[in-house]
Amino acid sequence: MSCIEQMKYEILLDRTTYKAAREYIEKNSEEVYYVSPGYKIFKDYHIIGVPPIALGAKGNALIFTYTKPCYGTFVLTVDNEDSIKEIDRLRKMETEKVTPSLKKSKPAESSRAPLTSFQDMWKK
Amino acid sequence: MTGEKVLLMMGCPEVPIQTSIALYLSHKLANLGFDVTVAGTGAANQLLKVSDSDGYYVKKLVNLDKTLEDVIENRADFDICFAFMHNDAGMTYAATMSAVSKAKLYSIVFGRNAEALAETIEFDCEMIIEKAAHNPVQLKNRLDKVVEGILK
What we know:
heterodimer; A: alpha+beta; 5-stranded antiparallel β-sheet; two-stranded antiparallel ribbon; 3 helices; 32% helix; disordered C terminus; B: alpha/beta; Rossmann fold; 6-stranded parallel β-sheet; globular
């Protein structure tokens, strides 16, 4: 899972808790998508995390968590061709999720998660 | 219980009792007929290798990230998993294991902040919480009872 360490990334938050990292992504991204633990990005990095795993998009940059056993969780951002592909893939996945619910005449879900925490969404 | 696959997931080896408990639990479970794999970080594995240089207590020692990757990719899985944790990252790894594996999960929460860390656990598991950092005896006794429960 160390392929990330070989990429050109920027650290946005370091040595924090997973919860704080997720909240940072939710508050500092233009779009937020939720995936399951183990979701694979950049071909071979499986995200370690406490569900729901938040992935953020800001422009063409992908914002994500990276957890190291001895150092805690980091929030990293990568802005390159691969991040554009990953953001496109997340958008497509959201569209596929929404389409069936529209067909069943259920209320349409936003393809972009609100910029609040996941916990707050369920309190409403 | 013969042949049931058990994973011991070691995190950061900063707190001393992790190594001794992993050696003890691996040997105890293997003697009871379990197929035991110990997975750890590079440093945690080196501590174990030096302590058990002939591989007497730990027969299968593997890389933690590689093992998680194998479970995520459905190349491997376990029946029982003991996840060691004394910090948020350890809890995060266990949460991932909980989400991707069918294993019955036991969270071994130890170290000075054990109680506070245990309160952050939101996934389904049996918790063994012990504030110990240097003396492994109380945690060993707790785990003996847990193993007795598994054998029933």
